[in-house]
Specification:
The protein is of the alpha+beta class. The chain has one domain: Nucleoside Triphosphate Pyrophosphohydrolase, CATH 3.90.79.10. It is built from three helices and seven strands; from the N terminus they run E-E-E-E-H-E-E-E-H-H.
């Protein structure tokens, strides 16, 4: 069984009311979050920051206290772990990576849950929304 690993983030606007950045991926056409394969000696956070920048043009502040992993099988004989952090964008100006991204959209949180394609991504988005809601009310 071949093992793959990708890292990314659920990227939110810094200020309330938050919006979340959704990525319509060229490969598969699904709506999800910016992510990509770990390269050579990269750390998880280095991979997440690089992939977010490559796919969206955004520089984000990562919150690594939120770290969730989704595991699935993209093809026969392959298992893939995707590690997600939370990212906060300082700007909403995005620039899509033409080779891998069909579209990018800043979406209201409740609407984003409807748009995200896969159930495991919906679950991680709900966990991220819950996390930032608690964070906001603690005054961080």
């Amino acid at each position: 069984m071949k093992k793959e690993k990708s890292c990314g983030a659920i990227v939110f606007t810094e200020k309330e009311p938050h919006k979340v950045l959704l990525v319509n991926h060229e490969n598969g056409g699904h709506w999800a979050f910016p992510k990509g394969h770990v390269e050579q000696n990269e750390t998880e956070t280095e991979t997440a920051l690089r992939e977010i920048y490559e796919e969206t043009g955004l520089t984000v502040q990562l919150d690594t206290n939120f770290r969730e992993t989704i595991t699935y099988s993209p093809a026969n004989g392959i298992t893939k772990d995707v590690v997600y952090f939370i990212g906060f964008a300082q700007t909403k100006t995005v620039k899509k990576q033409i080779e891998e991204v069909r579209d990018l959209a800043w979406v209201e949180l409740e609407k984003a849950i409807e748009i995200v394609t896969f159930e495991n991504d919906k679950a991680i988005l709900k966990a991220a929304i819950n996390y930032i809601t608690k964070r906001d009310h603690r005054g961080f």
